[in-house]
Amino acid sequence: MNVESPQVKQQQDRPTMAPDHPILTVAIALVVLSGLVLSTTRPPDPSEDGVIANLAENVGMETEEDPPAEASEEGTTVVEAAAVPGTEETTVAYEGDSDVTVTYPAIPDADPLTDFLDRTLTDRVHAFDAANPGAASFEGGWRLTAAGDGIVGVRVTTTETDSEETREGHSTYWYETDDGTVHGSSGLLAGQSELAALNERVREEVPDTVSATSLHPISTLYDSLGFSPEGDLIVEFDDGQVAPTSEGRVHVMVDREEAEELLSEFGLRAREAATRSVEEFTVAAAPEADKDGSSPGAPGEFSPIDDEVDCADPDTRCVALTYDDGPGGRTPELLDALAEHDAKATFFVTGHPVAEHPWTVRRTYAEGHELANHTLAHPDLATLGAGGVRADLDPVQAQVYRETGYVMDLMRPPYGSTNDTVARVTEEMGLAQIMWSVDTNDWKDREADVVAERALDGAEDGAIILMHDIHDTTIDASHEIIRELDERGYTMVTVSQLLGTPEPGRSYVDGVPEEPEETEEPEETEDADEDD
Ligand code: ZN
């Protein structure tokens, strides 16, 4: 049923595809070749027992004058913490029910790095807890992977256990001492097209147990890039992220020379720092004491707002297509149709479908659509207390954050049912409430023609159109809706694009520019609909 399930194996694909795909055949040949080269030029790599794809065909060309850097058992460079005097281990503060021990380094004069690690790891612990009713334990440790040339690299290894399994994961952060900025690993790459090229490369190199549909050029997936002592780029994924957890660690090595054209200037400096052995390195104090370390806008981070589109411009007629209760099995087909017309949409997702189709969530994000919260279990929020409302919104915020790194700004109450309590909790959570101006009733009338007609009849500048991407008839109708709206000259945008900057807690029915007064909002819509 679920074409994206990590359990889906692609064992049959390669043999049948290979004769028609010379590139793949070459790639396979190179993998075999590089294995031979490796086995003659390097000591055995213990990680080769696990899942490995390796294309380091030019290993051993470098003639380093400095002694080479040390490597961890997983192949990435390691610097002893003692080489950075005064480095202390700190522990993330946690008050909750899981068994949590997460440590990170506090390096003298690297306060922005310390603050960044504390904030990021705290967020990750909370997201693990919130996304996962079976959360049991979360452990995190660290090693330095580079220290020199004004750069410190920290590789964090986490081990999370829920009621199902234990998964190990890695993330590598790169601190620039000159300006106090922390780059995620995608910040080593020159830009989005380089990340996309790396993603394509990884798709070619990963073993059959990895589905190509799991791989998208988003920063969260590429959050652990590092280097071998020879300067090859190592891409590593978390357990269960792109293949079944039982397959172990999936990683891909891209040859130094080939990776060169993908790296940013900072990435090239990071490589030099990582591949040099370190006697002692002292961090120079960052110039701005109040710098929080973050570096927004890195490759693989997407905004639901396109700066090129201005819905306030009277010549631009904007309409927001919204899809609730998914993702569904045919959502990828809908994404194809949207892409064909350069259209954007908003997906109000719920808990179980997100867990079932995580790779569709990644793709939705990577293609510039908006993800928004439609609760974990689709209750009538107006019947719940504040704690209940929060308990149904928090897990979905956490699920989407874990898949994409994106913190959602919008929610839609199931059935459009809201009240003052929902308004207060959503305001606290930074979520605007999004209703609709056009109801296609697609859940009730499962006829594509009828659904398309209602959507198109209701379409006007500023309209928010309600549909559900879990119904076949809605997917069928959407082909017609998107084609026709495009032909009529509408720009299909995300809800955040339509509304500008929606206020948390406030409820919106549309983005019609001259909205007369706020009292027209359906504050207490107690719709009889069963499946909004
Ligand atoms: Zn719904």
Mind explaining what this structure looks like?
There is one protein chain. The protein is of the alpha/beta class and 532 residues long. The chain has two domains: 70-274, no CATH class; 317-508, TIM Barrel, CATH 3.20.20.370. It is built from 14 helices and 21 strands. The protein has helices spanning 13-17, 22-41, 111-131, 192-205, 256-260, 265-275, 331-340, 351-356, 358-366, 386-404, 420-428, 448-458, 472-487, 495-499; strands spanning 51-55, 70-71, 77-78, 88-91, 99-106, 137-148, 151-161, 166-176, 181-183, 225-227, 233-236, 250-254, 317-324, 345-349, 370-373, 410-411, 432-434, 438-439, 464-468, 490-492, 507-508. The strands form five sheets. It has a six-stranded mixed beta sheet with strand order 4-5-6-7-8-9. Strands 13, 14, 15, 18, 19 and 20 form a six-stranded parallel beta sheet that branches. β16 (410-411), α11 and β17 form a beta-alpha-beta unit. α3 crosses α10, α7 packs parallel to α13 and α12 (448-458) runs parallel beside α13 (472-487). The protein is globular. Mean pLDDT is 87; it is low at 1-64 and 523-530. Zinc ion is lined by residues 324-325, 374, 378, 414, 531-532.
Please state the average pLDDT score. Answer: 87
Please compute the radius of gyration using only Cα atoms: 25 Å
Helix content: 25-40%
Shape type = globular
Q: How many helices?
A: 14
Our estimate of the beta-strand percent is 15-25%
Query: What's the total number of strands?
Result: 21
Kindly give the count of domains.
2
Unreliable spans? 1-64, 523-530
Distance between the termini: 24 Å
Arrangement of strands in the largest sheet: 4-5-6-7-8-9
List each distinct ligand once. Answer: zinc ion
Which oligomerization state do the chains in this entry correspond to?
A: single chain
Major sheet details: 6 strands, mixed
